[in-house]
Amino acid sequence: MNVIRKPSWFIPEREATSEAAFMNRRSLLAAMGLGAVAASTPRAYAAAPFADAATHPNYRDAGRKITPETINATYNNFYEFGSHKQILQEAQSLKTDGWTVTLDGLVEQEMKLSTDDLIAKMGLEERVYRHRCVEAWSMVVPWVGFSLSKLVALASPLSNAKYVRFETFLDDEMARGQRQHWYPWPYVESVTIEEASNDLPFMVMGAYGQVLHKQFGAPIRLHLPWKYGFKSIKSITRISFVEERPKGFWEELQAKEYGFWANVNPEVDHPRWAQATERDLETGERIPTQLFNGYGAEVASLYTGKDEEFGDRLWR
Ligand code: MTE
C-alpha cells in the first residue's frame, strides 16, 4: 500500500476553503508567473488525491476555514507604518523593487539574493497555517513560500552559529512609523538554529495565491505558526547567523511581556491578559488556544529539557 504521510500542519484544501476559491488561487499563481508554484507543489499540497485526510492528526482543525483575505488585508500589525491595525494605506509606500536579502554572519560565504534568485533557488509551495497573535486574535492563511530550513542549508552556517537573526529594512522616508524614535528600529527577530532547521518555519512570498501584499510584509516575511505572531518578522532584508542570542524588537521594549521563546501556550498568561482563548478574526468567536498553536507534533521536541532555561515563565 502506498501510504503518503502528510505533515500535521497540512489542512486539507477542501476543508480549509471552497473548491472555487482553491481553483481561483491556483489560477492566480499561474497568472502571476508562479506557475512553478503549482508545478513544483509537492503531492502533499495537491487537493484532490488527499480527500482521505480524515486520518491526519491535525484533521480536527479542518473545520476552521481560511480567513477571508479582505479581513486579513485590513487588520495588520506593521509598526513601521503605524502603531495600530489600519496601516493598509500607509503601507503602500513600501517600495519592493530591487529588493535583496543578505545572508551573512557565521556562514561559509555571504550572499545577497534578489527575490527572483530566492524563487529560483528555493522553489515555492503553498501552506495553510494558523496564525495566532500574542494579542489573542487569530486567523488561518494560505501562504506561498518555502521552508526556512532550505535557506539555512543554502547558507551553510558554521558550527558556532547558534541563532538566526532576521532584520527588517530601515528607512524612515518610506516608513513614517520609523520616525517614532522610542521604538528600537529596525525590527529584529531571531530563532535558534535548531528551530530554523525545522521544516515548519516558512519564508513567505505570497498569500491567497498572490504576491504578498505590502501590509503583509512584502516582498518576503517569516511565519512561525507555533509562536506568537510578533516573532514572524515582515519585509526582511538581512538574515544573519550569529553566536549570541539577539534581542528582538519587542523583547528590547518590554522583555517581561515578550520573551525570546514566545511559543503559543494557553497556560501561560500575558502579564496583562489571558492566553487560554483567542478571537477568530472572521467569526469573532472565542476558541480555545492550543499548545504550540496545535503544531506540537512538529516542534515540541525542540524544547525537551529546556524547562530550567524557560524558568517560571515557561516557553516565554
Ligand atoms: N514585522 C515588522 N517588520 N514589523 C511589525 O510591526 N508585527 C508583528 C509581525 N511582524 C511586525 C512584524 C506582529 S506583532 C504580528 S501579530 C504579525 O507581524 C502580524 O502579521 P499580519 O499583519 O500578517 O497578521
Topology diagram in text:
Layout: H1 13-16, H2 19-31, H3 35-40, H4 69-72, H5 88-91, E1 100-105, E2 111-114, H6 115-122, E3 125-132, E4 137-147, H7 148-155, E5 163-168, E6 188-192, H8 193-197, E7 202-207, E8 210-211, E9 221-223, E10 236-242, H9 249-254, E11 277-280, E12 286-288, H10 296-299, H11 307-310
Parallel strand pairs: 1-10, 4-11
Antiparallel strand pairs: 1-2, 3-4, 4-7, 5-6, 5-10, 7-8, 7-9, 11-12
Bound molecules: ligand MTE.
The site of ligand MTE has 16 residues, from loops.
Supply Rg: 19 Å
Output the CATH homologous superfamily.
Answer: Oxidoreductase, molybdopterin-binding domain
User: Which term fits the overall shape?
Assistant: globular
The total number of structural domains is: 1
Say what the CATH topology is.
Sulfite Oxidase, Chain A, domain 2
Span between termini? 43 Å
Would you identify the regions where 5 or more consecutive residues have pLDDT less than 50? Answer: 1-10, 31-60
Ligand types = ligand MTE
**H and E order:** HHHHHEEHEEHEEHEEEEHEEHH
Helices and strands: which structural class?
alpha+beta
- Overall mean pLDDT: 84
- Largest β sheet strand count, sense and barrel closure: 7 strands, mixed
The overall strand count is 12
Strand content: 15-25%
By CATH reckoning, the class would read Alpha Beta
Which architecture does the CATH hierarchy give at level 2?
A: Alpha-Beta Complex
Percent helix range: 10-25%
